[in-house]
Amino acid sequence: ALRVAHTWFCSPRNLLDMDTFSKSDPVVVLFVQGSGSSEWKEFGRTEVIDNTLNPDFVRKFVLDYYFEEKQNLRFDGLRQNPLGSHSAVFGAQDFLGQAFVALGEVIGAQRGRLERPLTGVPGKRCGTILLLAEELSNCRDIITMQLCANKLDKKDFFGKSDPFLVFYRSNEDGTFTICHKTEVVKNTLNPVWQPFTIPVRALCNGDYDRTVKIDVYDWDRDGSHDFIGEFATSYRELSRAQSQFTVYEVLNPRKKCKKKKYVNSGTVTLLSFSVESEFTFVDYIRGGTQLNFTVAIDFTASNGLPSQPTSLHYVSPYQLSAYALALKAVGEVIQDYDSDKLFPAYGFGAKVPPDGKISHQFPLNNNAENPSCCGIEGVLESYLQSLRTVQLYGPTNFAPVINQVAGTAAQVTDGSQYHVLLIITDGVISDMLQTKEAIVTASALPMSIIIVGVGPAEFEAMEELDGDEVRLSSRGRFAERDIVQFVPFRDYVDDSGNQVLSMARLAKDVLAEIPEQLLSYMKTRDIKPRRADPE
């Protein structure tokens, strides 16, 4: 899961003036809604600023952001009541308005800034609230370094030592945690280790002056490695090696105590040290990368007649079909990152009017020139309309719609557009060879594919397409990246009947890999995020 800490700034503007002899003394309270829950819980509140309708709060909110979850937030504007500045109690007379927003909407907004009207006081204009999200970034750098050693102690009876290094990060309580081991260099007292990379957060948790302890060992086959010596440094000290070699004495405390003439057990030299920023999914979204969401729905006859309660497409007056539930769960999360909220939606495996020809990529809105629907509700509406006008038939072919989206993705490959195709299906693929070929080709393009399997069928072919265990290949070509995520819908049917929670779990699992898949595309193409426009 993508977990990124964000600092949230909020600035209300033109608040209601509720005080008689002065302006309001506002405070903003943030409430969060748990995944799949309707309950609001207070997360925190700003300080109170006296006598202003346009406060700039200093206190910020730090929230963890998960791309794959719908994280609903509520900001309540309140005035400090006359009970005193330390009172946590507010009455209805203190309410200045509220705003509801999904965290993803702010992340996806231009420059991570979103302005929303405050509402909730009948007949009154309550002003607006400006929300700004900033990623906490002090732990996002990646270090690459290389070390060598000189004249290490000889530990092996029949040969020289087989040295390796072990890096430890110091903890707040004075203990140490291992964070890296180098490879073993055999039979030498003057080893040169390969360059290696390590995140700054792993080495020092973002604290540049925190102690980093490095032990030098002689490798033994039985695992009882011999201690040669140790030295200590810090990120700040290591970083100075960017302009000069740094030499550390390797000391063995036991030897130092026993031998008066002991100098050291050799030296370790830092040959090179460089730092690069590790770009995140949020960097690309804030830099303007748009997620384009396309839907493809299985209209094959194996789903059953839509008018029959046994059909997977059956919509009762009381409950949506499995297809509609899966579409809504995934779409409602991803639509926050699509600025125009227009989603191309297709069906496959049906005979379509007027001539009854079988189609594997017919537009659900019946508009071949513009197959986009307005919002997820528009997709649902077109899907239900298509159920009334087409004849469910077959076979189950995925390749045409994958190739359709791949063709669109191939038109813009500079990182400004990334496509996500959601396929909802009930069964066995009829064109497996063509589908594998289509996915291998698509793996070189800015796109990901989510497959949700509904119904009781076995989905072995889907697991193969998922490629988590074995990289997908076709005719000797391997997929450049893993771009497919498959889940069976039945795994998310909650026995307790909590449909909201079940669908939140479904969305979380199918979307969890999207950020890494997007990053893998950008990395293989050496595409860096665009800088957000200055204010």
Number of domain units: 3
Per the principal axes of the C-alpha atoms, what is the gross shape?
Answer: flat
What is the CATH topology of the largest domain?
A: Rossmann fold
Please indicate the percent range of residues in DSSP E strands (runs of 2 or more): 25-35%
Largest sheet: 7 strands, mixed
What separation lies between the terminal Cα atoms? 31 Å
The CATH superfamily of the largest domain bears the name: von Willebrand factor, type A domain
Mean pLDDT: 88
Q: Helix content range of the residues, please?
A: 10-25%
Q: Which blocks of ≥5 consecutive residues have pLDDT under 50?
A: 1-5, 83-87
Report on this model:
This protein is flat. It has three domains: about 5-135, Immunoglobulin-like; about 140-275, C2 domain (Immunoglobulin-like); about 290-525, von Willebrand factor, type A domain (Rossmann fold, 3-Layer(aba) Sandwich), CATH 3.40.50.410. The chain has helices spanning about 105-110, 200-205, 235-240, 255-260, 280-285, 320-335, 375-390, 400-410, 430-440, 460-465, 500-510, 515-525; strands at about 5-15, 25-35, 40-45, 60-65, 70-80, 95-100, 115, 130-135, 140-150, 165-170, 175-180, 195-200, 210-220, 225-235, 245-250, 265-275, 290-300, 340-350, 350, 355-360, 360-365, 370-375, 390, 415-425, 445-455, 475, 475-480, 485-490. By secondary structure, the chain is α+β, with helices and mostly antiparallel strands. The strands form seven sheets. Strands 17, 18, 21, 22, 24, 25 and 28 form a seven-stranded mixed sheet that branches. Helix content is about 20%, strand content about 30%.
